[in-house]
Amino acid sequence: MTHHTGREPGSVAPERLDAGKPERLDAEEAVRLDAEKPERLDAEKAASAVRPTDVPVDLELHCAGRPAWRCVHDGEPFPCPTWRALPLDDNLRAVLLAAFTLFLRPAIRDLRGHPDGPTPPEIVRRFLWFLPVTDEEARAVALRYR
Question: Tell me: the pLDDT tens digits for 6-35?
Fold first, then answer.
């Protein structure tokens, strides 16, 4: 018995056979789409991306020195007071979150277990100073990034 569409029940219309398959892109279209992908920020790009015009110092100078995670410019624990003094808004917090989350795993691996060193939750709060992170949330994030 045929359905009102003229096809057998349960059959798929020919135009719907390719509905779930991605379209093939020509090389030019693939290059264009690749150029539109958001770029991942590395430490230098993060510094240049978050440098507000009213901050007189070059943030590129204030970068982390591993394995102690101290600022190579002023020797303070990274992120140093220069980073922490940035005037924050929602856009800057979003950029900082993307950039400083990249530091969590290596910082936790380098710093945990040292005598008088910070605990993993303290490291999370240190690197995400710009967010209100509770102790419980910091522990959960630290476990994720170990």
Answer: 545 544 444 444 444 444 545 555 445 444
Task: State the distance between the two ends of the chain, measured CA to CA, in whole angstroms.
Answer: 61
Q: What is the tens place of the pLDDT at every residue in 66-76?
A: 999 999 999 99
Q: Phi and psi dihedrals of 71, rounded to 5? A: -65, 130
Question: Is residue 47 a contact partner of residue 71, using CB atoms and an 8 Å limit?
Answer: no
Please return the burial class of 56, using the count of CB atoms within 10 Å of its CB with bins 0-12, 13-18 and 19+.
exposed
Half-sphere exposure of 144 (CA within 13 A, CB side): 10
Tens of pLDDT, residue by residue over 116-126, are: 889 999 999 99
CA-to-CA distance for 144 and 66, rounded, in angstroms?
A: 21
Question: What is the pTM assigned to this prediction?
Answer: 0.61
Distance CA 142, CA 24 (A): 42
> Whole-angstrom Cα distance, residue 99 to residue 67?
18
Contact indicator for 58, 98 with CB cutoff of 8 Å:
no
